[in-house]
Amino acid sequence: MFKSAKIKLTAWYLLIIMTVSISFSAVMYTGVSAITKRALDNQRLRIERRIMDMEMYRPTPRIALFVDEGALIEVRERTLGILFVINLFIFVIAGGMGYILAGLTLKPIEDMLIKQRRFISDAAHELKTPITAMKTDMEVTLRDKEPTVDKQRISLKNAIEETDKLNLFVNNLLKKSRYELGNHQSEPEILDFASIVAEVIKTMSPLAKQKNIALEDSIEKINVKARESELNELVMNLIDNSIKYSNENGIVKIKVITQGKNVVLTVQDNGIGISEKDLKNIFEPFYKVDKSRTKTKANGYGLGLAIVKDIVNSNHGSIDISSKINEGTTFTVILPIVSESTQVSLSKQI
Ligand code: ATP
Ligand code: MG
């Protein structure tokens, strides 16, 4: 599909370039013909005047003083030949360059389309798993001629669990598409970043306790201009991952500091780490590191970091990750803080 589009685009490029080139050549040809004709006419006039002058003194036979009419035709033919070669040259060069240029123009569109197709197929795959599990479980219960109440209860409980998973997945998908499209439900406001992080830590504490993971924080008080839901989502995803991908008795360190005009959030764990090969794809939607290697019961959808990346981008920030297998992972998020003037007006309000 993209090959034919590339050829079509090249043809359009060529059509435009050749129209300009041939029009220019036509003007050149007409100009050269006119100039040559005028030069020959002048020459003829000069010769005739000279002959008339000479005849005044003594009659002169019409000697071999003549203008070569063939010269005009020759000039025209030569000009035509040169212009033809130039146009042929332009056609070949523009064709080649146009083809390369068309490829470069279409590449981002092609990449986006491939990404979109992969996204749809991954999403369908994630949806299929709970639906299949639910269907199988229900079929087994139905086939049972006299299912006990307990059996029916278990079947219903399983169905509810799978529905919850589906619900969570669909919510995450919606979040992802909303952040990606910049479809915001609120305007950015001045927020106390420290208290948002502290609140998320409080929410995540029970999860950390289950694995006896210590959440250590060192948080500077700082205001940022952003959307609260986005900051919550960002911090929550990073801390959730640090807990999920750490072994029992681990330590997760959360730090917030000011650095010039930015606020820097680091979430560091001493968990299972990520290999260099996986680091490259970690922000891709649905990307999950091989489960057998992680040996964790974590069953996420691989959307958390893709959402984090979208949030960071929409806030004109950056995210960096450093990791070593079996040593741990550190995520560093840099976000612009509020401008000085906003800080002043905020402190006045307080
Ligand atoms: P979700 O966040 O959608 O519930 P998830 O946690 O699997 O699912 P991401 O948060 O996008 O998805 O993370 C992608 C993958 O990166 C994870 O599956 C995990 O393998 C790896 N990963 C992320 N954070 C860490 C971490 N702190 N330590 C080790 N591996 C990590
Ligand atoms: Mg996650």
UniProtKB/TrEMBL annotation:
Keywords: Kinase, Membrane, Phosphoprotein, Transferase, Transmembrane, Transmembrane helix, Two-component regulatory system. GO terms for molecular function: phosphoprotein phosphatase activity; phosphorelay sensor kinase activity. Its EC number is 2.7.13.3. One of its GO terms (biological process) is cellular response to phosphate starvation. It catalyses: ATP + protein L-histidine = ADP + protein N-phospho-L-histidine. The chain crosses the membrane at residues 12-35, 82-106. It comes from the Bacteria. Residues 122-339 form the Histidine kinase domain. InterPro entries: BphY/WalK/GraS-like, HATPase_C_sf, HATPase_dom, His_kinase_dom, HisK_dim/P_dom, HisK_dim/P_sf, Sig_transdc_His_kin-like_C. One of its GO terms (cellular component) is plasma membrane. Pfam families: HATPase_c, HisKA. This is histidine kinase.
